[in-house]
Every structure is written in structure tokens, then in C-alpha cells.
Amino acid sequence: MISTYLSFVICGDLYAVNVAKVLEVLQEEHITAVPNSPAYIRGIINFRGDVVPVFETRVRFNLPDRNTGDAYNIIVLDVSEGADMFRLGAVVDKVKDVISINDDDIKPVPAMSKEFNTDFLQGIYKLQSEFIMLLNVEKVFSGTELKAIQETNSIKDLITNL
Amino acid sequence: MDPILQKFKQIFLEEASGLLDQLEKDLLDLEISPDNQELIESAFRAMHTIKGVSGMYGFDFVGEFTHTMENVYQAIRDKTLRFDKEIFDVTFLSIDHIRKLLTDESLSVPENQTNQKVILGTIETILAKVNQGNANIPAFLNQPSNSNIQVPYSWHILIRANEQIYFRGISITNLFQDLASLGQYEITRLDHLSNNEIDTWSIILYSNAKENDIREVFMFIEDDCTITRLTPANLFEEANQSSASIDEPSILDYIESQEKGTKEDGTPVNGTSPEKTIRSKSKADTDKKVGKRISVDSEKLDHLMYLVSELITLNSQFTLTTSDSKYEKILPYTERLDNLSKQFRNNALDIRLVPLSESILRFKRLIRDLSQQLNKDVELVTEGIDTEVDKGTIDQLSDPLMHIIRNCIDHGIETPDQRIKKGKSGTGILKITASNSGNIVIIRVEDDGSGIDLEKIRKKAIEKGIIKTTDNPSKQELLDIIFLPGFSTAQSLTEVSGRGVGMDVVRRKITELRGEVYVESEFGVGTSFTLKLQQSIAIIDTLLFKVENTFFTVAVSDINICMQIPLEEIEKRKHTRTISFENQLIPFVDVRTCFELGGHYGEMPKAIIIKTNDRQMALLTDVIIGGHQAVLKPLGSLFRNQKCIGAASQLGDGKLAFMIDTNELFFKIEDRVN
After folding, report:
1. B656 touches chain A (CB under 8 A)
2. Phi/psi of residue B245, nearest 5 degrees
3. What is the sign of the dihedral through the CA atoms of B314, B315, B321 and B322?
4. Cβ distance B155 to B185 under 8 Å?
5. Cβ B654–A46 below 8 Å, yes or no?
């Protein structure tokens, strides 16, 4: 089966996500930092009328911090967590291309550096001379931290009432 | 299933539950005045309609069930049976049962199967009694009216149909097919009485059907038609033979006068029988309701609110970017746009408002069941319950109100014996009052029961370690203890209340709704709970302020006053984290430190004094910017730990400002103390 992927750059490396998950790519949208939140959350944006949290992929991938003033893009994604859907933004250095990939051409993930959590990857694809790491967005954005969220939804309840 | 059928089924379900609510309401009123014909008619009609429509959508069990139930009410209508407690009880059970059947159309739940049998059994027993008691008169044939005569008659039916009929999806064609099955008929469209809005038809029918059967055909439009029995003669034959054996002119005169009457005052002329008068009176009531209210899918409303909030945000962005003098030319337009979008917003908010009465009437049933269960005699008195509150609030309000009402009946109101001993009337009064002023809605629930025993609370609180024996709390402080988690003074746990999860849940819920709840009580005299709520909570007036580069808002309704405080004042009492305000010390929250924003305050930090639930605190900030109409957006579950900032709203330049949850901040302060 052939699927379409959106490729982007983080710290010089090429990554891609299935476009089925992607809602929109935003240019340098202003991100409002949320006080007292973990480092991998850059803040929130107003997306189509809802507040959407924005994740810093560099922190998530244990990569060096982004310098203030550096250009960035935000990819808005819908990530499923069980039966629920989470909408979130992922900060990447630069969105590159939309590519079609045949499932059969996806190579398994090799052993990698300890620093990088290979659970985040669904496979590797070779495009000409470059390797693209295909992300498993469910794993990247719904690790234990996100799972804990579902235990207490008091705030969510509270807010829905507002 | 066919999506169209599915949609109709959904409409049926909504209608049926509306009819059940109506039926329940009628019954509660009938309990007070069991001889009110108007109410009996209304209850019967509701049942009859449920029966008729349920068959159409395959709810056969509902149909079968209502049919049996209807027989009881037919007998009551015919005065062969009188209401007694058994009938009321079984009808209430039936209503509950039908509600269940609506979600279990194939009767597959074993519990429902048993219930169906048991309730039907009870109804049959009641019906059997009717037939026994009236052995000499067949049950359904002893009405004083001659509506059951089965000799053929000529009938005149006048239909005045407005567009509503088409909207309600009633098929006129089917109606006429049914009519044809009754006998010979002739329809004339009365052009001189029809206009764009209303179609008028005059129908002459010669049929040997019973009046009820004829009425059944017109069941769905019965409010729009008048059915009159004319003469035993066949008008069609008479016309053909042009004989004058019947007083034809008078009949024609009659028909004409009916039509004229309709034209003159817009409502059908009433017949002479009392039954008809009653019918038309209740007709006027329902017409009024139909005309005044429409029901809308709440999702559509939510979407409207979303669009409005986007418009408000866009409008403020637009106003901000065009404030430059070079846009002077379009200034009048931006001003108009601003004005219009504000009106639009107010209007949309207004649409979301629904009267409290609907949910309060639902409590009538709860009160009835509870007082029976507890052998108490309780009368519900309401005042101002047409006060309107945001739809979302009403939905969230029902649980806390229910808890309060349960408590009033269970712990407050005494049994009739006890009451009489105390010199009170045997019937306890539960009073629900609602009123609004500005954006604030006040709901009061009070009982004239035993009141709260402060000594008992004191003992219990000491026992639970909430207060010390040496403490000397004020009356209000003692009363407020009932809102603490896990506190309950009930002697024994009852099914009704007293699990200690009542009043704290009430306070939490009301607080979540940005409201407040107070209790007042006089031992031996009664207790009252007062809920203070915001009428609309989706878009609220806030004060915008800034610390470093982060914007915050706080609800204007929470603010007492804004002031400047010299930094040295704050430094002086820094270790106690209090400031002096109006001759007393109040705690302050340093927003900078609280949200880890870094930087330092200037010489003159601004303080926003917050006052809710009679508690006060000061928020320290850098700059107070001004008023901001906040369209609140939830932060999402990811930020669940951010208890003090529950929501955000977009500013004119696209930045987001965090809404401070003052109640959570107060909790935080209390934690600090502990």
C-alpha cells in the first residue's frame, strides 16, 4: 500500500509523519508559554478556535535546544490515544516535502544511540541518498506523561463547564 | 438503518420524552386536583400520542404498553374510574418504564421484561375492578356524550393548517387515505379563507365510525381541526336527490358560521359541549408554547457560540490593526462592525438561556417519591422559576440542586407527627425561589423543617478533628463545616442522603460553575441554601493584566478593587505574605513567583483585590491593562496540573491570556496555611 507522508527537518535530520494525522502546517505562529509546564511543552496556540498544546520535538528527542529567533514550523496533528483524539502542535525546524512511500519499502529501525528513543520510530525510508525516519506519533506524543492525563480529567471537566 | 428513518426515529424519541415529561407534570398536578378534566384530557392525549407514534417507528412494546395504560385513563375520562394512589403509583412506574423501553425497543433487558409483566399485571387488575364495578354498564359505553353511537352520521370537519403541519412532517395524503377508510367524504379547499400561511379545508364525511375513531385519524393535527357531528342523514344522498327531508339550510348555515367564526378571530369556534371548551382552552396553551419556543440541537448552539467567539476575537484583532490614523476612512465601518458583533454576541448568549422551570419541574417527581419513601408530607412552592440561566449551567446544576433537595427532605423536614407535635402544619414546605440581577442568578432552596443542630455539628467536627475543643467557631463557620468533604451528621446512612458525599460535592460543583453557595439555618425553624450563579459563562468580562510577558485575566465579578502598593510595604510583611487592606491583613499571591515568571516588581506593584465567598486576597502584578471580553477556551487535559489557570482567551494581537481561577488560588493559599 502506498501512503503519503509529510517530511520535515529537526537538527539536520529528516523525519516524516503520515499526512492522515496532519491537519495543518503553521508558519511561525506565536506560541504562548504556559507557566509551570514541563520543558517539552512549548506552550499553547489558538488553532481554529481551540487551545492546542504545542510540543517541542527537540526536547522530546533529546536534541540540543532551539535558539530564540530561529525559524520554526508547527505541524498540527490529531493523535489517537485509545478511543480519544488529542490535537496538538509539534514544533519542527522546517517542513520539507510531501512524499509517497510504499509500505514495502519501509525498513526496520536499527539499534540507535541511547539518547534517542527508538520507540518513537515506525520505520526508516531511504529517499535517494537520504534516510527519512518515519515517526510513530502515538508513541512520541502519548507516552506515560500523556497517559497520566486520562486518569484525572477534573480540569477538563471543569473547563467544559466554563 | 435508513438514515432518514433514523432521523425521524430520533425526532420520535425526543418527542416521546417530551410527552412523557408532560404526562408526568400533568400527573403531579392531578394528584393535587384529581377531578380536573382538563388535566385528565391532557394526560390522556399524551398517552394516546405516544401509543400512536411508537408503532410507526417499531416501538411495539411501547405501543402495547401505552395501549393498556390508556384504557385506565379512558375509564377515568369516562368517570367509571376515579384516581387513587394505586393508579398514580402505577402511572409513575409506567412513565419510568416507557422511558426505559425507549432505549430498549426490542425489550431485551431482562429487568424491563419483568417490569413490563408486573406493571401490566397491576394495570389489568385495576381495569378488572372497573369492569366488575360497572358490570351493568359496559366499561366504555356509559359516557354521557353520544360519541360512541355507531349508527352512521354525517360529520363536518374543518381543518386550518398552517406551515407547522408540513414542518412536523405530517403527511396530509396519509390522513386522507385513512379518512377514505372511514366512509364517504368530500373535501373542499376554502380558497377565500386560505392564504399563504394557512390552508383551510372543509370536509363532509358520512361514516358509521365512532367519534373516537374519527378523532384518531386527525390525532396529529387535532389542535388545528374542529370535528362536528351534523345529522344522521347522509348529506351526499340528500344532495343527489335534492330532497329536503332534513333541514339542510340550517346545516349549511352552521358550516358557514363555523367557517366565518374561524375567519374572524383566527381560532375555531367552540362547540357547545363542555368537553370541547376544555379542549380549546388547553389548545391555546400549547399553541402559545409552540409559538414561543423552538427546540434546537445543542450541538448547533455550541457551533454558533464557537462562531460568535471567533467573530469577537477577529473583531478585536481587526479593531487593533486598524486603530492607526491611516485607516481613518474605514473607521465608521469598523465601529459599526464592532457594535454589531457585540450585539450578535449578546444575542447568541441570550439564545443559550433557558428558564429554570424545566429542570425544577423535574424535581417535583423526586420530591413526590422521596416524601412517600420517607413518610413525609412535602409541598413544593416555587417562585420566579422562569428566571433564565445558561443551558450549560442548568445541566450542571441539576445534581447539586438534587443533593440540596434530598437533604432538605431527608434531614430537614420532619414527619407529619413530629411536625404537629412542634406546632407546625403537618405538611412541610419546600420553597424554591429564583431571581436575577444583572448577570447574577440567585436560586434559594429553603425548608421549614428542623434546621441544622449546631451542637451536633460541633461535636462531630471535633470528633473528626476538623476543629479543636478549644476552638470557638462562629455560627456561620459551624454551618460552613457541612460543605467539607466527608462530613455528615446523619444518624444512620440512608438511601436518600447521608453518605457524607453530598454538600462538599455541591460546593465543588457550584464553584466549578463560577458560582457560590451559602447555607443559613435556624434550629427548629428551617434551613435555606442560596446559590449565586453567573447567568452566562461562555464569554465573560475580565480584567487583563500582565506580568513580564505573560498576560492574565481575572473575572471582573471576582474583583473588589485595584490599587497600588509600595514595594517596601510588601517587603515588610513578606514573611507572612499578607498586605494591609481596609484595616485588616489579607493574604497576597505573588503572580510572578506563583507562575515562575522571573524578573522583579517595580517600585509600585499593582494589586488586584479579589473577593469571593467572603474571602479576600490580593494578586500582585506589574501592569493592569484594562477590560477584556474573554472568550474562554479550555487549556486541555494536558495542563490538568495547572489548577490555577484553567482556561485561556485570545487577545486582539493573537496572543493568549490565561484566566486565573480565583477559587483554586484560595485553595492554594489555604494549603499554604496548613
Report:
1. yes
2. -70, -20
3. positive
4. no
5. yes
pLDDT reported for residue B8: 66
- CATH superfamily to which B539-673 belongs: SH3 Domains (2.30.30.40)
* Residue stretches of chain B with pLDDT short of 50: 134-149, 240-248, 262-290, 491-500
Would you call A155 an interface residue with chain B, using a CB distance cutoff of 8 Å?
yes
Chain A residues inside the 8 Å CB shell of B596: 35-36
What confidence score (pLDDT) does residue B245 get?
A: 43
Contact A153/B643, CB-based, under 8 Å?
Answer: no
**The total number of residues written for chain B in this structure:** 674
pLDDT at B431: 93
Percent of chain A at pLDDT > 70 equals 86
pTM for this structure?
0.53
Q: Which range marks the domain in which residue A125 is found?
A: 2-161
More confident residue, A91 or B265: A91
Cβ atoms of B620 and A59 closer than 8 Å: no
Q: What is the pLDDT of residue A5?
A: 94
Separation in Å, CA of A35 to nearest CA in chain B: 5
pLDDT at B246: 44
Asked whether this complex has an ipTM greater than 0.90, the answer is no
pLDDT number for residue B266: 41
Q: In CATH, what number is assigned to the domain containing residue A11?
A: 2.40.50.180
Domain ranges of chain B: 3-133, 153-292, 298-352, 354-534, 539-673
The strand order across the sheet containing B645-650 reads B623-631, B539-547, B550-555, B656-660, B645-650, B633-634
Instruction: Tell whether B387 lies on the interface with A, counting CB pairs under 8 A.
Output: no
Give the per-residue pLDDT at B517.
Answer: 87
pLDDT band at A154 (very low <50, low <70, confident <90, very high): very low
User: What is the distance between the alpha carbons of residues B475 and B550, in angstroms, rounded to a whole number?
Assistant: 42
Phi-psi region of B239 (alpha: psi -120 to 50; beta: other; left: phi over 0): alpha
Q: Which fold has domain B3-133?
A: Four Helix Bundle (Hemerythrin (Met), subunit A) (1.20.120)
Return the percent helix, strand and coil in chain B, to nearest 5: 50, 20, 30
Domain at B354-534: CATH architecture: 2-Layer Sandwich (3.30)
The whole-number pLDDT of residue A7 equals 94
Q: Is B399 in CB contact (< 8 Å) with chain A?
A: no
Task: Report d(CA B550, CA B592) in Å as an integer.
Answer: 10
| Predicted pLDDT of residue B286 | 40
Of A51, A150, A153, the CB nearest to B656: A51
Choosing among A79, A84, A152, A161, which should be mutated to test the B contact, i.e. which has the most B CBs within 10 A? A161
Would you identify the CATH topology of the domain B153-292? Alpha-Beta Plaits (3.30.70)
Contact between B396 and A36 using a beta-carbon 8 Å cutoff: no
Is the CB of B645 less than 8 angstroms away from the CB of A35? yes
> What is the pLDDT at residue B281?
38
- Interchain contact, B640 vs A37, CB within 8 Å: no
| Closest chain B residue to A32, measured at CA | B656
> In this structure, what DSSP letter does residue A20 have?
G
Domains of chain A: total: 1
For residue B299, count CB atoms less than 10 angstroms from its CB and return exposed for 0-12, middle for 13-18, buried for 19 or more: exposed
Strands B539-547 and B550-555: antiparallel
* DSSP result, B334-390: HHHHHHHHHHHHHHHHHHTEEETHHHHHHHHHHHHHHHHHTT--EEEEEESTT-EEE
